[in-house]
Amino acid sequence: MKYTYLLINLFTIIVPFLFSFHPKLNFYKTWRAFFPAVTISGLLFILWDVYFTGLGVWGFNPDYLVGIYISNLPLEEILFFFCIPYACVFTYHCLDLFINRAIGDKTEAILTPVLILIFLIAAAFNYDKIYPLVTFIILPVSMILTRYLFKQRWISKFYVIYAVLLFPFLIVNGLLTGTGLKAPVVWYNEQEIIGLRIMTIPVEDVFYGMALILINLQIYLYLKRPAKKISG
C-alpha cells in the first residue's frame, strides 16, 4: 500500500513519456521549453501546497506513502506537479497537431469573460472557505493574463483539450481522493471546501487542475515560440 501514490504518478506519466519519442509527435524536442515551465509553475503550486498542508486544508494518508518528506509534503506530492503537467502538456501537444480550430472566435470572446465572472462570483460566495476562495481567484487571474494581457488566442483550444483531459483527471484524482480505496490518499478538511464532490473528488479540484495546466501551458508555449530573427 505504501507505493500507491508513487504508482499513480508513474502510471500517469509512463505512456506520455514513451510516446514523447514517436516520430510523428516528437514531444521530446520541446523539453527545453517544458522543463523550465514545469519548474516555475511547480514551484508556485508547491508553495501553495506547503501552506495549505500547514493550515490543515488537506493532508496525506501515510499508509499510501513511501515516507520521504520535503518540508511537510511527501515526495509523491512533489512528483505530482511534474507528472500531471507532463501528461497534460503532452496531450495538448498531440491534440494541437490535429485541431485547427477549437471554438469560434466569437464564442470564445463571450465564453472567456463569462467564465472569469463566474469564477470571481464563486470566490466571493466562498470567502470563508480558503480552498475555493484561492482557487477561484488564481484561475480567473491566470485567464485574464493569458487572454487579455498576453493576448493568447490558443485559450480556445485549451478549453476543448482540458475538457478531454477531464476523463483521465477523474480517474487519477478519483484514486487520490479514495475511489476504489479503503481510505483517501489525499484527505480534505470539510470546513475549507464547498462540499460538492464528483464521486470522491472535491469540485474545487477540477478548477485547481485547470489553473495548474493553464499556467504550465502559458509558460511552455511562451518559451516554445520561434525565436525572432534579427535583421542585419
From TrEMBL:
<dbReference type="GO" id="GO:0016872">
    <property type="term" value="F:intramolecular lyase activity"/>
</dbReference>
<keyword id="KW-1133">Transmembrane helix</keyword>
<keyword id="KW-0812">Transmembrane</keyword>
<dbReference type="GO" id="GO:0016020">
    <property type="term" value="C:membrane"/>
</dbReference>
<keyword id="KW-0125">Carotenoid biosynthesis</keyword>
<feature type="transmembrane region" description="Helical">
    <location>
        <begin position="6"/>
        <end position="22"/>
    </location>
</feature>
<feature type="transmembrane region" description="Helical">
    <location>
        <begin position="206"/>
        <end position="223"/>
    </location>
</feature>
<comment type="pathway">
    <text>Carotenoid biosynthesis.</text>
</comment>
<protein>
    <submittedName>
        <fullName>Lycopene cyclase domain-containing protein</fullName>
    </submittedName>
</protein>
<dbReference type="GO" id="GO:0045436">
    <property type="term" value="F:lycopene beta cyclase activity"/>
</dbReference>
<feature type="transmembrane region" description="Helical">
    <location>
        <begin position="34"/>
        <end position="58"/>
    </location>
</feature>
<feature type="transmembrane region" description="Helical">
    <location>
        <begin position="159"/>
        <end position="181"/>
    </location>
</feature>
<dbReference type="Pfam" id="PF18916">
    <property type="entry name" value="Lycopene_cyc"/>
</dbReference>
<keyword id="KW-0413">Isomerase</keyword>
<dbReference type="InterPro" id="IPR017825">
    <property type="entry name" value="Lycopene_cyclase_dom"/>
</dbReference>
<feature type="transmembrane region" description="Helical">
    <location>
        <begin position="78"/>
        <end position="98"/>
    </location>
</feature>
<feature type="domain" description="Lycopene cyclase">
    <location>
        <begin position="128"/>
        <end position="223"/>
    </location>
</feature>
<dbReference type="GO" id="GO:0016117">
    <property type="term" value="P:carotenoid biosynthetic process"/>
</dbReference>
<feature type="domain" description="Lycopene cyclase">
    <location>
        <begin position="3"/>
        <end position="95"/>
    </location>
</feature>
<feature type="transmembrane region" description="Helical">
    <location>
        <begin position="110"/>
        <end position="127"/>
    </location>
</feature>
<feature type="transmembrane region" description="Helical">
    <location>
        <begin position="133"/>
        <end position="150"/>
    </location>
</feature>
<keyword id="KW-0472">Membrane</keyword>
